[in-house]
Amino acid sequence: MNASVIIPAFIPRPLTKDRLNPSRTTVSGLEAFAVNNQTDLCEKRHQTCGEDAKRFLEVSADKSSDNVPPSDQKQIHPDDGVKWHMLINQMPLHFSNLNDPHASVFQISIIVLYIIMAQKEKLQCLKDFHKDTLKPSPGKSPGTRPEDEAEGKAPQREKWASKLDFVLSVAGGFVGLGNVWRFPYLCYKNGGGAFLIPYTIFLFGGGLPVFFLEVALGQYTSEGGITCWAKLCPIFTGIGYASVVIVSLLNIYYIVILAWGLYYLFQCFQPELPWAKCKQPWNTEHCVEDTVRKNKTLWLAANITNFTSPVTEFWEHNVLSISSGIEDIGPLKWDLALCLLAVWVICFFCIWKGVKSTGKVVYITATFPFVMLIVLLIRGVTLPGASEGIKFYLYPNLTRLQDPEVWIDAGTQIFFSYAICLGAMTSLGSYNKYKYNCYRDCLLLGGLNSGTSFVSGFAIFSVLGFMAQEQGVDIADVAESGPGLAFIAYPKAVSMMPMPTLWAILFFIMLLLLGLDSQFVEVEGQITSIVDLYPALLRKGYRREIFIAVMCFMSYLLGLAMVTKGGMYVFQLFDYYAASGVCLLWVAFFECIAVAWVYGVDNFYDAVEDMIGYRPNPWMKWSWTIITPVLCMGCFVFSLVKYKPLTYNKVYEYPDWAIGVGWCLALSSMICIPMVMVIKILQSEGSLIERIKAVAAPAKSGVSSRPKEYNVKGELTLPLDPNGNNGLIKPTHTIVETTM
């Protein structure tokens, strides 16, 4: 053949980088011909078909080049890396050309050649070639293709529709209730502005590095929270199982908060907020309104020593109907049970179609809370007494830094707020395209997360300062954390504002959306991890949707124990032990050991460079290798040393059996790592050292999900030699198998 191949102009331009994934929504005439005549196709692949077609094309091109006018010719050099297979696929061929008297010999030859190839090849060859352009079957799970279903294969892994889908999903996943009700309280409790020192150290030494590690690992392997570790370092597969156990327990109790918030939201649609006055059926003789407490004469005349506020009685006697202890679990509260069912149904429909549905829902659930937070912030700082509350929030007390508990609180808050060690960030990252710059966006998202926590403190403490001034008490007397802030302190504050119903509705809508996107992102992480473990079983047809429904229903049934009269005690038991800082620190420590010391930090850095095109700041490498493991283990040890048994309201002490149940919840996740490690070693062969080396090495099937069309620099390569293309073209195939 000559140095260049003369191709008539009716053949489209060569396949370039921007055309590897055409968004074609129709099926060509040839494809329809192949599908309609699939029963007539040969049962065997002809290994020589590709070479015959290639030679036929070369001869036809040489013979027909002289018959084509120069204006209709296009020169393409073979070194351009354009495969003859792809050129054929891109031709706008129609069978009507056979009857066209003006059709060239070359055109007719190519049409005949294409029909012969379709007849000689199995239908699967053509479908493999078009696997990125054929539509999914109607009614099937995203990624389900007819050829996968026919051969019993797992469908292709779906990807985010856009970069913004991933960014908003991650933002919604880790910007949650902890940013609003936990960080401001910890900041005030642990020295105000001084608390930002240990917080920043743990942020850059632990939170951001582990967050980026999990996202990058998911993107590199295109696997969920369990199978990513099985690929990277099989001996540490227990990390994935531990994360799934933690997030499964977290999903059971975290959503109960949303059920409480939904119940409060329903109660807001009344002429008067039900927690504003002491005239409700659930109020006791000890209920005293704030107007009475503020009026010194009425307060002294009442001579009340043991009093409660109407908002506290609404929370304890109406919402919770709290019993005397965990021993008295009591009957089910059907109003809360229905609210819990409602939020589970919403959660299910947010994720039931995978990232395609999740990526659209987060446009509302992840953005609207920020709008509400800004509105509440503006309203809060304009209230009288707001400046005192903000001063109380940020005034530094450097002596508090001598207390190890301050550092423990900083470390656990970082790991809580970044939703790491739960498998969720790994799962979200696994849906990224291979060349996505996750490093840049992880840094931006980290700034967004911590910035939201800091700004939330202004919104919360400005309102608490107003409430303290209205009641004539110190701010320390009204500052609350956790459910106490969301369902007692803040509702009480908004009841004192003008238009209290409006502000209460806005607050609880913000609370619901903050918790909802965190909840369904965590459920998505749980589902993805398990589905990736059994892809052939759970990715077919509607099985993924059915599996999600089963998991949501099971979690709902287990969560019913927390909407009984003693449910608050069960909720606190789960919150204190099941997803505690001890469990998260334990998992984070082994994540860093597995990546930095077993797989190799330089190897992982090479993988990141292959994805994003450059090497991240060395601070990440040093964090994974030394800083993060030291911080995690130090905080883990101090947490055990400073351990205090769980109490409710600092009054009720849990019985020993309940404490034992709590530790069982904590150990159920922590034990996964050493247990799976032992199982992997026992399942391998050879001496102990040989077994450890075997299970510490990456999986033989490979770790990277890098498309084979990319070289190390990320450039597209389409070599003509079928034996020298990293397996892109198999010698037994005559149709190119693209894996973009």
TrEMBL record:
GO biological process: neurotransmitter transport
UniProt cross-references to CDD domains, sorted A to Z: SLC6sbd_TauT
Covalent S-S links between cysteines: 278-287
GO terms, molecular function: gamma-aminobutyric acid:sodium:chloride symporter activity; metal ion binding; taurine:sodium symporter activity
Enzymatic reactions: beta-alanine(out) + chloride(out) + 2 Na(+)(out) = beta-alanine(in) + chloride(in) + 2 Na(+)(in); hypotaurine(out) + chloride(out) + 2 Na(+)(out) = hypotaurine(in) + chloride(in) + 2 Na(+)(in); 4-aminobutanoate(out) + chloride(out) + 2 Na(+)(out) = 4-aminobutanoate(in) + chloride(in) + 2 Na(+)(in); taurine(out) + chloride(out) + 2 Na(+)(out) = taurine(in) + chloride(in) + 2 Na(+)(in)
Subcellular location: Cell membrane
Bias (Basic and acidic residues): 145-157
UniProt region (Disordered), positions on chain: 133-157
Binding site for Na(+): 172, 175, 179, 417, 449, 514, 517-518
InterPro entries given in the database record: Na/ntran_symport, Na/ntran_symport_taurine, SNS_sf
TM spans (from-to): 166-184, 196-217, 238-266, 334-352, 361-386, 406-431, 443-468, 497-516, 546-564, 576-601, 622-640, 660-682
Record keywords: Cell membrane, Disulfide bond, Glycoprotein, Membrane, Metal-binding, Phosphoprotein, Sodium, Symport, Transmembrane, Transmembrane helix, Transport
Membrane topology: Multi-pass membrane protein
GO cellular component: cell projection; plasma membrane
PANTHER family the UniProt entry points to: SODIUM- AND CHLORIDE-DEPENDENT TAURINE TRANSPORTER (PTHR11616:SF141), SODIUM/CHLORIDE DEPENDENT TRANSPORTER (PTHR11616)
Similarity comment: Belongs to the sodium:neurotransmitter symporter (SNF) (TC 2.A.22) family. SLC6A6 subfamily.
Protein name: Transporter
The organism's taxonomic lineage, starting at the top: Eukaryota, Metazoa, Chordata, Craniata, Vertebrata
